Amino acid sequence: MGRLDDRVALVTGASGGIGMATMRRLAAEGAAVVGTDVVDESGEKLVAELSEGGARAVYQHCDVGSLDDVTAAVERAVSEFGRIDVLFNNAATSTGGYIPDLDPEGWDTSLRVMLTAAMYGMKAAIPHMAAQGGGSIVSTSSIYGVVASPGNAPYCTAKAGLINLTRTAAVEWGRKNIRVNAICPGVVETPMYDSVLGIGLKTHEEISAMHALGRTIRPEEIANLVLFLASDESSAITGQAIVVDGGLISDCNLTGVPPA
Ligand SMILES: NC(=O)c1ccc[n+]([C@@H]2O[C@H](COP(=O)([O-])OP(=O)(O)OC[C@H]3O[C@@H](n4cnc5c(N)ncnc54)[C@H](O)[C@@H]3O)[C@@H](O)[C@H]2O)c1
Predict the structure, then answer these.
(1) What does the mean pLDDT of the chain come to?
(2) Ligand 1 centre and the CA of 19: distance in Å?
(3) Alpha-carbon distance 252 to 22, whole Å?
(4) Residues 59, 144, 155, 193: which is the catalytic one?
(5) What b/e sequence results for 151-174 when a residue is b if at least 16 CB atoms lie within 10 Å of its CB, and e otherwise?
(6) What are the structural domains, with CATH classification, of the chain?
């Protein structure tokens, strides 16, 4: 018995580090998975691998910045597998820069892909979930939805907005047995983290040392949280933004006393 037998899950950003790990984890627990992304080759490869291993898995191209694409992806889940139980809003792209230098177009794109897209997903999936008796929506925010960093306003703003979109959806749809939660990862070893290291101002060792656990996070550790929130094991949890960061933002060491 898997923890998600007979469930159907849709994952956006399925060609990326966290998306791939989550597709694998949900499929391993019995879910039928619909992977979506704008980078088709790796998503299609993953779905082929999962299908060969006996999972029910399909891939669909979907730019989450397009309501039509997102709606079509949700409809694909329903037409292919008969329902949609889990929506994982996870895709992201962002521009950066100091606020006076921000390009308005880049700002709009960042907010559309990381915030508006989650609303599109909810808009498309909630009617199906309500009609079938419930569902679980999980959106990938970030520690930058809770704290901030210089030069990162579009990302920090979108991720913070996602947390209150999550709470709003939770209070709006809880009576229909739809739970809505956000996850707030810290530093996860994916291509996105490679681009942070690519800035060249902090090394992996320096970043690791900032964590209470003394290390960064693997995508599989995020996938475990998504699985928990997708499954009935989290049946009383809704409207939450759960930080999974290895203790990174808990550390505000003013005294210089070293950890044990
Ligand atoms: N890696 C980290 O340290 C970290 C930390 C906190 C939060 N996150 C969040 O985790 C999520 C997954 O990121 P990741 O670390 O796996 O990064 P990633 O770059 O590996 O994956 C992001 C995926 O989103 C896809 N994408 C980009 N624009 C898209 C669009 N318009 N439509 C559909 N897909 C699109 C990309 O093609 C990519 O596959 C993101 O929401 C990110 O903000 C990551």
Answers:
(1) 97
(2) 8
(3) 31
(4) 155
(5) ebbbbbbbbbbbbebbbebbeebe
(6) 8-188+218-243 (3.40.50.720)
